[in-house]
What we know:
The chain has about 60 residues and is mainly alpha-helical. The chain has 3 helices and no strands. The protein has helices at about 5-15, 20-25, 30-40.
Amino acid sequence: MTSEIKKERVRHWHERNIPDSEIVRLLGIPEAEVKAIISNPPQPRKPVKKNFGPEFIEPPAFFD
């Protein structure tokens, strides 16, 4: 499996019109993997939901 850094380099060099054969030679990964990385753009990450309550609940000042 290719690291995220190499995937970013493949995409960056592809955007700069570097030939696939040159990317294969520079990174030392198979040509099929380079083409797969280029054809599958990264998916945006979903934001993490925080399920926390309020930090402080003020007690009532006067009682009935």
